[in-house]
Amino acid sequence: MCTPKSAGGLNLINLQQWNKTAIAKTCWDLKHKQDKLWIRWIHAYYIKGQQFHEAATPQQACWMVRKVLEARAITEHIQHRPNLGKSLIKIVYLQLIGSQSRPPWKCLMFNNSARPKAIFTMWLQLQDRLLTTDRLQNWGIDVNIDCIFCQNQMETRDHLFKDCDYSTAIWRKLLLWSRNQNFTSTTWEEHAGQIVRKGKGKSVGAQIFRLIYAEFVYAVWLERNQRIFEKKSKNWESVAREIAFMCSVRASPKIAPVLQQFIFT
Ligand SMILES: [Zn+2]
After folding, report:
1. Residues spanned by the domain of 157
2. DSSP the chain
3. 119 C-alpha vs ligand 1 centroid, how far in Å?
4. Domain count, the chain
5. Model confidence at 55, in pLDDT bands (50, 70, 90)?
């Protein structure tokens, strides 16, 4: 969650690392901004003319000063550049969280006008982290593992969103409505590859596709939950119609004129 969006995360700040970074920034100031009064004071009382990185951390200093001086190990790797101060925290923070792999589906997360809860559900689904019954069973939880839609197969991420007749009918209807061609895929990797190809880029078509896919995933997951927990059910056509309506409502001004031309029959 705390990784950047470009690495498939939600761009939330890791507060623990951010705190370390803020301390490192103060440490960096201590070395490079010796014109400030409090810095001159620390140099006069604790550094006492020693090399900044070699001076031992004074044990008699207060907790805050010790923490700042202990952050020297982090700042050692930062090269001094003019005007670095403003962006220093960001540079150090990104170094601390390390380099991240970039999953191909990250493009679906950008510039997507679907509801945030739909995008979040899609984010979990793409990583196979939704609590489908196969995962619950692997954790030792006693649950009915049959797909709630067809009662015919084990409920897995792949079955629920790719293979199940119920969700496939919704997906085909949405593809038809949005003038996309049918997908043919046997494995989840092929399926995901096609979604990424369709949803990648800045084109209106790609933006519409990202919106539809996120709302589709959310609607299927919601319907699945309502059937399990509230014993309510809708037919696939109603769900597809609701997704199409929601996409029309949520569409950004750039894609709305195109989306409104689609006819749901
Ligand atoms: Zn099923």
Report:
1. 104-259
2. --S-GGGTS-----HHHHHHHHHHHHHHHHHH-TTSHHHHHHIIIIITTS-TTTSPPPTTS-HHHHHHHHTHHHHTTPPP-TT-GGGHHHHHHHHHH------GGGGGGTT--S-HHHHHHHHHHHTT-S--HHHHHHTT-----B-TTTSSSB--HHIIIII-HHHHHHHHHHHHHTTPPPP--SSHHHHHHHHHHHH-SSSHHHHHHHHHHHHHHHHHHHHHHHHHHS-----HHHHHHHHHHHHHHH--TTTHHHHTT----
3. 23
4. 2
5. confident
Tell me: the pLDDT tens digits for 125-142? Answer: 999 999 999 999 988 988
Question: What spacing in Å lies between the alpha carbon of 122 and ligand 1's midpoint?
Answer: 18
Measured in angstroms, how far is the CA atom of residue 257 from the centroid of ligand 1?
Answer: 35
With 90 as the cut, is the pLDDT of residue 209 above it? yes
Q: Is 265 within the bounds of a domain?
A: no
From ligand 1's centre to the CA of 189, what distance in Å? 19
Distance 164 CA to ligand 1 centre (A): 4
- The percent of residues in the chain predicted with pLDDT above 70, rounded, is 86
> Per-residue pLDDT tens for 180-206?
876 777 899 999 999 999 999 999 999
